Amino acid sequence: MRRLSLVLGLALIGLMVAAAALSLVWTPDDPYLVRPQDRFMPPSWSHWLGADRMGIDLVSRLMVGARTTLMVGVIAVCLAIVVGVPLGVISGIRRGWPSQLLLRISDVMFALPALLLAILLVAVRGASVATATWAIGIATVPVFIRMAHAATLSVMAQDFIDAARSCGASRSAIALRHVLPNIAPIVGVQASASFSTAILAEAGLSYLGLAAPATTPTWGRMMRDGQADLFLTAWPALAPGCAIALAVLGFNLLGDGLRDQLDPRLRELG
Amino acid sequence: MSVFAVERVSRSFGRRSSRPVQALDRVDLVIEPGQRWGVVGESGSGKTTLLRLLAGLDRPSAGQIRFQDRPLDLGDQSSLTRLRASVQLVFQDPQSSLDPRMRVGAIITEPLRSARLRRSGQVPTDAKARLNEVLDAVGLPREAARRYPHEFSGGQRQRIAIARALAPKPDILLADEPVSALDVSVRAQVLNLVNDLVQDMGLTLVMVSHDLSVVRHVCDQVAVLKAGRLVESGPLERVYQRPASDYTAALWAAVPRLGDRWD
Amino acid sequence: MSLLEVNHLNVWFGRGRRPAVRDLSFTIEPGQRLGLIGQSGSGKSVTALAVMGLLAENAQVTGSVRFDGRRLLGAKEAELAQLRGRDLTMVFQEPMTALDPTMKVGRQVAEVIRLHEESSGRETRRRVIEMLDRVGLPNPGRITDAFPHQLSGGQRQRVVLAMALMLGPRLIIADEPTTALDVTVQAQVLELLDAQLAAHQAACLFISHDLAVVARVCQQVMVMLDGAVVESGPVRQVLSQPVHPYTQGLIATARLDLATPGARLPTVEDFYAGGQR
Question: Is B213 within 8 Å of C257 when comparing Cβ atoms?
Fold first, then answer.
C-alpha cells in the first residue's frame, strides 16, 4: 500500500515532468498558432483534446503550461524550504526572545493569504509569472518555519540529543547531524503538500489574471479562458482542470509514500 | 476442568518475503484452576506472545488453545465473550496502559461498561459500589477516583491498573511483567498486593517475568521459555531446587542480589 | 585534587516548586566508583544532568561543580562540549531512545571521534570496529552498518557504552544503564562495565534504584531521598550497618531472593513512613 502511493505519485509527476521536457523539443501542434477554422473543435485525430476559442491545440498548450506550473512550484517551494527550515530549526534549538519574535511574525504572515500578498506584490511589480512565484514562495515560508520549529522541538526532547551533547556535540553539529535528518521526512511530506498548494495557488492567480499575461500558457490561465466558453464546450476548461487535479494528487501521493520511505524504522515493513 | 490447555501451539511472525520469526514453537501447557503460573525467559523468548494468545489478543499459527475445555475461537462471539468475562490483563507499564485524559474512577469502571460483558450477566452492575470495593482492595483511598493518572506514582498507577483488572470480578488474572517498570523498593508493595488479592479472591494467575526471583514470590508453578520453546515446566520449588536445564540455572544466577559478605 | 567536586548543589524547576536537588555535596576521586541510589523522583537523574550541564533551560542551579579543578556550572557550552565525550561521558537508561534512529550505529560511534580528534576515515572505522568488538558485540563490521532498531536492547546498550568508552574518559556517568534490560542481559552489561572501567581506570557515578546492582559495581554509595542525601559511605558499611531508616527499608526490599516464597515482603514503609511517593 505504501509502495503503491509512492509509485503512483511518482508516475503522475513523472508524466508531468516528461510532458514539460518534451514540449521543449516537440509538441503535437504549435502551441501559439491560431487556427480560426479549428475553433472549439472537440477531441479528434488532429487535436487530441480539442482546441480552444482561438483554435489552438489544447494538448500542446497543456504541455507548454506544465513547464510554467512546474517551475513556479519548484522555485516557490525551494524558496520556502531554504528560508523556512533553517529559521524553524534555529528557533527550535535556541529558545530566546529573537526566536519568539520570529514565530509571532510568522504567525501573522501565516494568517495572511497568499492571494493578498500576491495582489500587493502585483501592485508593486506588475503581474508576471515571477511575481506570482515570489508571492507563493513568501507565503509558504511561515508554513515551513512552523513545521520545522515544531518538529525540532519534538526531536530536541529525545534522549539521543542529550546523548549527542554528552558526547561533546555543539548546537550546530546537533542541528546538522541529528535534527535535520530526523525532520527530513516531515519536510519532504510538507514539501509535497506545499507543492500541490503552490500549483493550485498559481492556477488561482493566473485565473484571476494576477500571474501570467494572456499569451503565456499556464494551466490556471487556460482554465480562466476555458470557463468563459463553458456553455459552448467543456473541453477547454476540463483539460487544464484535470491536469491540475492530477498534478495535485500526484504530489500528495508522493508525500505519503515519501514519509514512509524516509523513515528507516518503517522502511523494512514495506 | 482445566482453565487453559495449550496444545502444541506455535506462533510465527513474518512477511512473505523474509524468513518468519518463530515466536512460539509447539508449546504444551495445562493451567488448572487456582494455580499461579510464572512464565519466565529472556526477552524474545516468546513469553509475552504466549500471554497474548491466552488473553485472546492474538491467535496461534498452529495448534490450539482450549479455554475451560472448549476450543478458544476468536471468530466466535460467544467463545470470546466467555473469555473476556473471566480473564483480565495487567500490563507492564502503568504509564502507557492508563489513558491520561480519563479520571481514575472512569478507568477502573471502564470494563464494567462493556456491553458485551454486561450481556453475559457475569459483571457487577453497581459500578459505583464495585469501584469502592476494588479501590479498598488495592489499598487506594476512595477519593483517588476523582483524580487523574499523572497525579500518582508508578507503584500507585500499577495499583490502579490492577483495580481495573479486578473490577469485573475475573476468575483469571494475566499479568505481563507487572513490576519490571517499577523501582525495586516499590516492587515489594505491588508483589504483596498481587499475592494477597490472588489468595483472597482465589484467582488463577499467569504472570510473565524475566526475573525468576519475582516469579518465585508469587507463583507456585513455572514455565521456562527459550527462543519460543518450552524448556521446562512444573512446580516452582522443584524447578528452583533442581533446574533440569542450564538455561534455567543461568536465569536464576543472573538475578542481581546483595552479596552474602555483609550478612 | 578530586576528579569531581560537587558543592552545595541546588536545582529547582520553576518558581514555588520544591527543589529537585537540595544542598548536595560529594566528591569522586580518580578511578573511584560512586553509586547514587534512590527512588524515581528522588533527584538522582537531575544530579547527573546537572554535572553534565544537560539540564533543561527552565532549571535554576546554584552551588558549584568542578571537574579536575575546572568549573562546570556556568561554563560556556563550547567549553563543556570539549570535555563531554572525551573526559566526561554518559550512559543513558533507554538504549532505544539514546541512539539517533536515522543514523547508522557505526557513524554514531564515529561521531565521538570526529568531534574531538583529527582522524582519517579508514582509521576512524578501524577504531570504531575495534571498540564495538571490545564491548562484546558479535560481528562488529556488520553492526557498524546497522540502524539502532535492527539491534536488540542489550546490543544497543553495548553501542551506547562503546560511545562512552571510545576516547578513554576519566569519568563515566551511568544513569540506570541496565534498568531497561532483562536480568540475563543486565548481568552481562554490568560485567562489561565493570571490566571496562577497570581497564580504563575510569571513575564512575552509577545511578540506580536497585541496591543489588550498585553493590555489584561500586565501592562507595550515596542514598538520596527527596533531593537530599540521607546516608553515604563505603558500600560494605552502608549495607551492613545502615543508619537511616530509609536505607534500612531499601536494603530490606532488595533482598527478594532471601525472602520466603509467598510470605509478605518487607516494604520501605515498614522502616520509614515518609518514603511514600
Answer: yes
Residue C199 scores a pLDDT above 80 = yes
Across the interface, whether the CB atoms of A167 and C85 are under 8 A apart is answered yes
CA distance A220 to A211: 9
Mean pLDDT on C221-247: 93
In this complex, which of A95, A162, A177 lies closest to C57 when CB atoms are compared? A95
Question: Pairing state of beta strands B36-40 and C220-225?
Answer: unpaired
Q: Which domains does chain C have, with CATH numbers?
A: 4-241 (3.40.50.300)
Mean pLDDT score, A91-104? 87
Give the minimum alpha-carbon distance from B250 to chain C in angstroms, rounded to a whole number: 8
Reduced DSSP (H G I as helix, E B as strand, rest coil) percent helix, strand, coil of chain A, to 5: 75, 0, 25
CA–CA distances in Å: residue C68 to residues B224, C76, C117: 50, 16, 21
Residue B229 grid cell: 520453546
Q: Would you say the ipTM is above 0.85?
A: no
Give phi and psi for C172, each to the nearest 5.
Answer: -110, 130
For residue C276, what pLDDT is reported? 44
Cell numbers at residue B131, please?
A: 469501584
Candidate from A111-115, B252-256, C120-124 with smallest mean pLDDT: A111-115
All structural domains of chain A? 2-267 (1.10.3720.10)
Q: Which residues of C124-141 are buried (b: 16+ CB within 10 A; e: fewer)?
A: bbebbbebbebbbbeebe
pTM reported for the whole predicted model = 0.78
Q: How many CB atoms lie within 10 A of CB C241?
A: 11
Q: In sequence order, which residues have a C-beta less than 8 Å from that of residue C254 and are 6 or more positions away?
A: B184, B185, B258, C210, C211, C212
C21-28 and C4-13 as β-strands: parallel, antiparallel, unpaired? antiparallel
C58-114: pLDDT as tens digits: 889 999 999 999 999 988 888 999 999 999 999 998 888 899 988 999 999 999 999
- Which residue type, as a one-letter code, is found at position B102? M
Looking at CA atoms only, how far is residue A186 from chain C in angstroms?
A: 13
Residue listed under C-alpha cell 532471601: C258
Q: Which three cell numbers stand for residue A189?
A: 511530506
- Classify each residue of C29-58 as buried b or exposed e, where b means 16 or more C-beta atoms within 10 Å of its C-beta: eebbbbbbbbbbebbbbbbbbbbbbbbeee
Per-residue model confidence (pLDDT) at position A205: 84
- C261 and B237 within 8 Å at the Cβ level: the answer is yes
Predicted confidence (pLDDT) per residue in B101-123, tens digit: 889 999 898 888 776 666 666 66
**C-alpha to C-alpha distances, A2 to A6, A267, B88, C150, nearest whole angstrom:** 7, 10, 36, 21
Domains of chain B: 4-255 (3.40.50.300)
